[in-house]
Amino acid sequence: MFFGRIKQKQENDRVPPNQHVTKKFPILHHGSVPKYKEDLSNWNLKVSGLVENPLTFSYNDLREFDDVSATNDIHCVTGWSRLDNGWMGISVQDVAKKVNVKPEARFVILHAEENWTTNLPVEDFLRATTLLAHSHDGKPLTPKHGYPFRIVVPHLYFWKSAKWIREIEFVKEDQPGFWEQNGYHNYGNPWEEQRFSWD
Ligand SMILES: Nc1nc2c(c(=O)[nH]1)N[C@H]1C(S)=C(S)[C@@H](COP(=O)(O)O)O[C@H]1N2
Ligand SMILES: [Mo]
User: Fold this and answer.
1) Would the pTM count as exceeding 0.85?
2) CB–CB of 182/197 below 8 Å?
3) Domain 39-71+85-192 top-level CATH class
4) Which of 5, 35, 81, 98 is within CB 3.0–4.6 Å of 19 for a Cys-Cys bond?
5) Nearest CA, atom 9, ligand 1
6) Is the minimum distance from the CB of 119 to ligand 1 under 6 angstroms?
7) Strands (E), 141-181
8) Which contiguous run of DSSP H or E holds residue 122?
9) Which residue's alpha carbon is nearest to atom 5 within ligand 1?
10) Which phi and psi (to 5°) does residue 94 adopt?
11) How far does residue 188's CA lie from ligand 1's centre (Å)?
């Protein structure tokens, strides 16, 4: 009882307004799930735009970075939150060190398969908590959850966490992405319920 109440309280502090906690891991996206058939020889990740040293990484290049792990909470704009997700991946700060981001870069456009994009300020993208994740709760990402790599930006609504990431572009002018052009908020802070652009 007593412990139960403490746990409830802690959980409430961790759940943004008008979200409900689920233990499931729902799947949400626009478009189709890419089929790589376990063959990543034609797969790569570009880091482009306002960087001194643009680079294209193969899957194996990325796996040579140190792995980092993180545990954080997912808040989906449709109302579900999933607590304590264990991610493994690489730090976007480590990747950024290799390309040297120019000071003029103010936004990051994340490009996924099928020309899906999402946008966020460069200082949000370059937080220590942003990962290029390859595993979730101890297992490689499934195709539906973003295999081989997805972005994880835990402090914003989960639509900013691009699955099937293929290019990280640093730009000067903001460019609203797929959901942002379709009515979602441009920034998406779950604690302020920035769900829709008319909020
Ligand atoms: N490439 C891509 N990434 C995407 C999306 C998408 O449509 N395409 N949808 C976003 C949305 S709206 C959500 S809620 C999460 C869902 O991730 P999940 O299916 O792993 O739960 O992925 C985000 N990343
Ligand atoms: Mo979403």
Assistant:
1) yes
2) no
3) alpha beta
4) 81
5) 29
6) no
7) 150-152, 165-171
8) helix 122-125
9) 29
10) -65, -40
11) 14
